[in-house]
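<purpose> Linking amino acid order to shape
<body> The protein record starts here
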Amino acid sequence: MALAAKQKKFVQEYLVDLNATQAAIRAGYSAKTANEQGARLLANVSVQTALKTAMNKRAARTEITADMVLQRWWAIATADPNELIAHRRVCCRYCFGKDHEYQWADEDEYDRQVRLAQDLKQPVPTDYGGYGFDPTIRPHPKCPKCHGEGHGDIMAADTRDLSPQARMLYAGVKTTKDGMEIKLQDQGKALENVARHLGMFKDKLELSGGVDVNNPYAGLTTEELKKLIGSG
């Protein structure tokens, strides 16, 4: 049976995000009843057949398999954001100075501060704490100034050095009035897509013959699914 215009549009829209409710709305059905309409359309044998045909054609055209997409979503969902940007506690100037006195990075830094103090007619600082301050070291647990807390520091990684998985998570960088913003892929959405395509949600599409368009992994054992996802 030929599909009506709205049904054809639903098939096209469903392929975008596999969300029956949103596909129904975009196809022109009422938003108030879109949830019911989506479920009803997915249960329609003609719509099921059209969806299966469209998915097969798309897979053949793009040479992209469901396994490839699933593996990429899984990689994004499980990537470690700390590879891209991390908040860390680092030492204060007194943590590792001699006798926990103020520590300078080097003699040049100290000399600049001496000259500045002299120009401003302020007390000249001492160098009792010595030199070699490293702002990346963790706080000294017995520092009398910061009490082992140090201070917070945000570190963005060099994206050229990211692991392949972290590179999938990276979505770009932009400069704002408040500084630099690292953009990440939506890990929650990626995990939702994995769950949806493994049939963990209720809005599954059962086709005649027992094929599940929304779950191409139906019938696989748990161990087979773990092996499939882990192979990415």
Summary: The chain has three domains: 1-63, 65-84+161-232, 86-156. DSSP finds nine helices and four strands in the chain. Confidence is low (pLDDT under 50) at residues 203-214. The first strand starts at residue 85 and ends at 90.
